[in-house]
Amino acid sequence: MEPVRIIDVIKSRRSVRQFLDRPVEDDRISEILEAGQWAPSGLNNQPWRFVVVKERGLIASMAECTRYGAIIRGAPLLIAVFLDEDVMYDHTKDSQACGAAIQNMLLAAHGLGLGAVWLGEILNRKAEVCRILEAPESMELMAVIAVGYPAPGDSNPGVRRDISEIAFAEQFSKPIF
Ligand SMILES: Cc1cc2nc3c(=O)[nH]c(=O)nc-3n(C[C@H](O)[C@H](O)[C@H](O)COP(=O)(O)O)c2cc1C
């Protein structure tokens, strides 16, 4: 097998917002969750909790909680990512750990030939999502990931700032390259 360059995987991942009407197999869901499970966390406290949602009624209810409802409604699978405040030690660092878990899951989905998108706007109505998913009091919603097989034609070129805008040599006054 050809060695896989992580940079190629990272750069070829795009947010996918339109999906085929095809379920995601349970072994693939397990692998995505495992990728999240193996993210780094401060003190290795693993503050993330994942709720896998496939039930159409729940997906429809969650779609009502965001202006990106069409993406959610069209997805066969949602993974709601929560921060468990019962194991939290620092809100910033624990939120960052959840972000690392989310990115791991996006990359795992991509590696499995699936598409996914990180949905944050839904946090504006996180209380409603918590109620729909019967989240215990200690759970803070961090994001919802919509996952599925990518529909053809949902192309997204991917744009990033030039490296010279975001990285510096030694001090901010000095260009990197
Ligand atoms: C914290 C965060 C919140 C996001 N929220 C949304 C969202 O609510 N709706 C959406 O369509 N995309 C959302 N995205 C996806 C971004 O729009 C996307 O990652 C960005 O435009 C770069 O595109 P790419 O992922 O295809 O490289 C979010 C991404 C992050 C990291």
> What is the count of DSSP helices, taking H or I runs of 4+ residues?
7
Report the C-alpha radius of gyration, rounded.
17 Å
Low-confidence stretches: none
Count of all domains = 1
Q: How would you sum up this structure in a few lines?
A:
This protein is α+β, with helices and mostly antiparallel strands. It has a single domain, classed as NADH Oxidase (3-Layer(aba) Sandwich).
Provide structural commentary.
This protein is α+β, with helices and mostly antiparallel strands and 177 residues long. It has one domain: NADH Oxidase. The protein has seven helices and four strands; from the N terminus they run ααβααβαβαβα. It has helices at residues 6-12, 26-37, 56-63, 69-73, 91-111, 126-132, 163-166, and strands at 48-53, 77-84, 115-119, 139-148. A four-stranded antiparallel beta sheet has the order 1-2-4-3, sandwiched between helices. α2 (26-37) packs antiparallel against α5 (91-111). The longest helix has 21 residues, at 91-111. The model has no long low-confidence stretch (mean pLDDT 97). Bound molecules: flavin mononucleotide. Flavin mononucleotide (FMN) is lined by residues 14-15, 17, 68, 71, 117-121, 156, 158.
Summary keywords:
single chain; 177 residues; alpha+beta; NADH Oxidase; 4-stranded antiparallel sheet; 7 helices; 4 strands; globular; binds flavin mononucleotide
